[in-house]
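Me: I hope this is not a bother. Any chance you could explain this protein sequence and its structure tokens? It all follows right here:
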Amino acid sequence: ASSSATSLDDDTPTTEEGSPRTSILMELKDDITTNDVLKFFWKHDVSIAQVESCPVVSCDTGDTGNDDDDDDGTHDGTKFEFFAEFHGEVGDANVDSLLVELKSASASALRVLDENEKERLL
């Protein structure tokens, strides 16, 4: 009898297919880069399904602040919004540790949305 094994044992899946997903949305602090945030996911062994990062447009002027280039190529005054969907859920030890670090990197509330569309602000 042949069977297709999808895990090393009955309790350990080898793929994220079918695993719960969680989404986060945050505005990055001035001294935090997208690369810094991605390192948090790596550090806590959380697989990313989707990621987006974009400058936040100021409501007052419509400007992203990109005209303020420094000699080192940075953009003073530009805020960036970071969105990620990842495998895992609140309550998983590695996800909870990741969320603590993400909160410390967020300029405002960290929005967490699970696949049941339950939103949390951290």
